[in-house]
Write a structure and sequence with these properties.
Helices cover 5% and strands 45% of the residues. By secondary structure, it is mainly β. It has three domains: 2-32 and 221-313, Immunoglobulin-like (Sandwich); 53-122, Roll (Membrane-bound Lytic Murein Transglycosylase D, Chain A), CATH 3.10.350.10; 127-216, Sandwich (Immunoglobulin-like).
Length: 315
Amino acid sequence: MYLRILGALFPIVLLLGCQPAVSATRDFPTPIRWESPSTTPSPVYPTRAVSLTPTLAPSPTPRTYTVRQGDTFGSIAAKFGIAVDDLINANPDVDPNALPIGQVLAIPTRPAGSETPQPTPTPVNLDIDPPYCYYQPSGGKWCLVLVRNPGSDPVSSVFVRFSLYASAALDPSASREVALPLTVLPAGTRTVAAVFFPPEEAQDEMVRVELISAIRTAEAPGILPLEILSEDPRPMTDSLEVAVEFQIDPGGEVPAKRLDMVLVLLDSSGRPVGFRILRSEGEWLAGSAHRLTISAFVLAGKMDTYELILQAREE
């Protein structure tokens, strides 16, 4: 399943490394430390959570879909009753965080004779904290927001939209849709959504974040149990290194083929001031001890606590 670690230490942001044999590691775009830290957040519009009622419409034959205005991987997956990961895997050359209008997507179908039904999507509300933005030396800025799942069931296919507005403007000057870094957001947990606006867009200060896609399921398919054996935080000047030893599915035999890692840094007010996302693909044997090390710097201000979520998948 997943494991969430809480800690209280000194300032940070992140660099992530895995000690187990890993064939491929994807390091998502990572912020760098702002040279003149300032914790003053950008003005924000009130955030709002939107309940979506997806239409379950799987097809027994292969088909394609042409992207329209407002579509995301999450909303398209919900429309066809498939998992977002399956849709992403069926379209490996398409960036799920930059989905162009007019793009033709391949819509995967379940194998014939499959006895495992797709989970039925249901409307869901997630809690979205106010966003905070931090300027970078390049002139662009990172905007971060915490997304919480207050329900009793896991949630998948979560996408949010960040929009920038000029003062008193009715329409956004720039928008970005991003997926949560975790395939499944377990019940009662939270993680970060983050987006970078380049210098030519970053001048507008008003920020709004909306939930545009989320599916609640009774189970978390493909997620394996994970147990933390030890945690060794090592604070340094303006940084923190955390070494974590863990086991995949201690009582089982199925190895993990993917490990998703999200580290979020929080200040004393609970605001996100840094993050790191890493996805590693390889093989982690069930029941064996594995180790990873994460180090980080803050974007601005001082870190007071951190939260780390590890999520192991069987495929």
